[in-house]
Design brief:
The complex is a heterodimer of chains A (about 350) and B (about 280).
Chain A: H1 2-30, H2 37-42, H3 48-57, H4 64-76, H5 90-125, H6 130-144, H7 147-161, H8 185-191, H9 195-232, H10 235-242, H11 247-277, H12 279-285, H13 290-299, H14 303-331, H15 333-339
Helix pairs in contact in A: 1-4, 1-14, 5-6, 5-9, 5-11, 6-9, 7-9, 7-12, 8-9, 9-11, 10-11, 11-14, 12-13, 13-14, 14-15
Chain B: H1 2-8, H2 13-35, H3 67-102, H4 105-119, H5 123-134, H6 138-165, H7 168-175, H8 180-216, H9 228-237, H10 243-271, H11 273-277
Classes of the chains: A mainly alpha (about 350), B mainly alpha (about 280).
Chain lengths: ~350, ~280
């Protein structure tokens, strides 16, 4: 028990160290800008006095270590700074954009998990047969397709040519958003009993979610296929086969659970990547989430906002990593005996 | 013995596909570079936004420039940029990672901690933040991609070096008074090179995608550069009416990346005895 507590405490300490490190990186990057942040904040054509005032207000005239301490102290209070474009707190803006990205990433994750588990299992159980080769080629294609290209291809085929899905946005213009409960429009609409809105939201969600899923599916299916192949060669699986169990039962009851351990770890990180990597997808589909917000921030050289997003991505990444570690410790008995 | 066995194996189907992809891209680019009658920046307003025709195989852009010629001129840019990027990553990896493993423990620990931290920010996000700070441009984008990807190489090289450091020939050299730099150069680097090469070749595809993504969002190469991500970004503006403008540069990215990814798999299978031994 004490070992377990110590292990978890170690993980949490590592988590905090990572966050401090990430703050160092974002701080360093925003001080590496060739442009003068005070001039950016004051706006174009501001007089030297105004720029000097702004420099003082932003604390840019202080020694660098003091600026960093102030930055971290602010972060600890949830103060990510003010957006240069809107003048509003960056964290508020990020949190306002987050639900749209979470909805998109969750939808993509559901697609990825469903497609990679089924096709990975089918490929591993038919090792070196045509279906296995087909899955491998498809996964190689998935790993080689830029997000912007699959997004445009999906828009061209399903949006323009077939007219099955809208070209962008989260809801049709004439549809009112349901009252925010979870922030996920599909869920909120269903909770409010407005299934017409839920269907409209799902139609808008489909193409961007598939775009994200296409990019991340290849890695997931490769990983699950390889993990399953490893397990399928082990003695306990051989024994089950010799005992005459059906291949399907062997795959689901015997081989899948151990193969799911590395897969779960990878999926946690994939989800974090989806949250962060949605930038291109959101930009193309005009999806009002974190990625689109960051694109606007980049276009406006709004560094507090860009660094806020970078930091948020690191926080999400580290949190999910921590969560998955703890989760694996709970579901995999081997990690328990190893640590004790 | 196993080595000659792996080399004697017939080329796998995926190696063939890799070769076919890269050959196709090379041929198309050679055509665009050498035989095509069009210069990549020759403006012809009478031919603006022409769909693919017998004259303009891939169509033209909003200034009537031939897209095939532009894509072909983007190819050496893309390939050279990504090869330079993974080479820089591998070089940094061997130097920093190797030095880290040979250095006192506290140096090693703090360097590895720094790598962990950089790896804790999703690579594309970190590259975007860096590219935004450095300012748009192909070189800055590559610097950003290198910074985001090098930590993985550093970790790999460091772990490989740690394993090598206890080998008798390294310890013999150290006890004969060899300096750290000498050991790194003459004993460590040659021995971890195959592993770094595998990593670098497998990573080329990812680097092409990252560079194109940065170009697409406007942080990489800037128009009128024929870099593929930047071309696709301009094409996106006309996408609803002129599908070819964004589709062909993107397709070039897909083919090239697929070729390098499969090539990476082949190199991995050919050079890595552990993987080759697996069925």
């Amino acid at each position: 028990m004490r070992e377990r507590v110590r292990a978890i405490a170690g993980r949490v300490a590592g988590f905090l160290a990572t966050l401090i490190g990430a703050s160092l990186i974002t701080f360093a990057i925003s001080h590496l800008i060739p442009n003068d942040p005070a001039r950016l904040a004051a706006g174009d054509g501001a007089s030297p006095e105004v720029v000097a005032q702004m420099r003082e207000r932003l604390g840019l005239d202080q020694p660098i270590w003091e600026q960093y301490l102030r930055y971290v102290a602010g972060l600890a209070r949830g103060d990510f700074g003010l957006s240069i474009r809107s003048g509003e707190p960056v964290l508020d803006e990020l949190l306002r954009a987050a639900p749209a990205t979470i909805e998109l990433a969750l939808a993509a994750l559901i697609l990825i998990v469903a497609a990679s588990l089924t096709l990975g299992a089918v490929a591993a159980m038919n090792h070196n047969k045509p279906i296995d080769h087909a899955v491998r080629v498809a996964s190689a294609l998935s790993l080689s397709t830029p997000t912007f290209w699959s997004a445009l291809a999906l828009i061209g085929i399903f949006g323009v040519a077939l007219g099955w899905a809208p070209l962008g946005g989260r809801l049709s213009v004439d549809v009112d958003a349901p009252a925010a409960i979870t922030g996920l429009v599909v869920v909120d609409a269903a909770l409010a009993g407005r299934f017409d809105i839920a269907v409209d939201a799902l139609a808008h969600l489909a193409l961007p979610a598939v775009t994200l899923a296409i990019a991340a599916w290849g890695g997931a299916v490769r990983l699950f296929r390889a993990a399953l192949l490893d397990v399928l060669q082990q003695d306990f699986v051989r024994r089950a086969r010799a005992a005459g169990l059906s291949p399907w039962r062997i795959a689901t009851r015997y081989a899948a659970p151990p193969a799911l351990v590395p897969y779960t770890t990878a999926m946690g990180l994939t989800f974090a990547d989806l949250l962060g990597g949605a930038v291109v997808t959101e930009m193309i589909f005009n999806w009002p989430g974190l990625g689109a917000y960051t694109m606007q921030a980049i276009a406006g050289l709004d560094f507090p906002a860009i660094m806020g997003f970078t930091l948020l991505a690191a926080v999400v990444y580290a949190s999910i990593n921590l969560l998955v570690d703890v989760l694996i410790g709970v579901i995999d008995p081997r990690t328990r005996s190893q640590r004790a | 013995m196993t080595h000659s066995l792996t080399l004697a194996r017939p080329l796998s189907a995926s190696t063939m596909i890799a070769a076919a992809c890269l050959l196709l891209v090379t041929l198309a680019c050679l055509f665009g570079l050498v035989w095509s009658p069009f210069a990549p920046d020759a403006i012809d307003l009478s031919q603006r936004l022409s769909p693919p025709t017998a004259r303009h195989w891939f169509g033209t852009d909003e200034l009537g420039r031939d897209l095939l010629a532009r894509i072909a001129h983007g190819a050496p840019l893309t390939v050279a940029a990504s090869v330079a990027t993974v080479s820089a990553c591998a070089g940094l990896g061997v130097f920093i990672g190797g030095a880290s493993a040979l250095a006192p423990r506290w140096v090693d620990a703090s360097l590895m901690r720094a790598c962990d931290i950089m790896l804790s920010i999703p690579a594309l996000v970190l590259a975007m933040a860096l590219a935004a700070a450095l300012g748009p441009g192909l070189v800055n984008a590559l610097v950003a991609v290198i910074a985001a990807r090098a930590p993985a190489y550093v970790r790999l090289a460091r772990n490989q070096t740690l394993a090598l450091r206890r080998e008798a020939f390294v310890e013999a050299s150290v006890s004969n008074g060899a300096s750290g730099l000498y050991v790194l150069r003459h004993h460590i680097a040659p021995n971890i090179l195959p592993v770094m090469l595998i990593q670098a070749v497998s990573d080329i595809g990812g680097v092409i995608l990252a560079t194109a993504a940065l170009g697409f969002v406007g942080l990489g190469a800037q128009p009128p550069s024929p870099e593929w991500g930047a071309l696709a970004a301009s094409g996106r503006l006309f996408f609803l009416d002129c599908w070819w403008y964004a589709v062909f540069p993107g397709f070039a990215v897909v083919l090239t990346t697929l070729g390098f990814n499969l090539l990476g798999d082949a190199v991995r299978d050919g050079l890595d005895p552990r993987r080759a031994a697996r069925p």
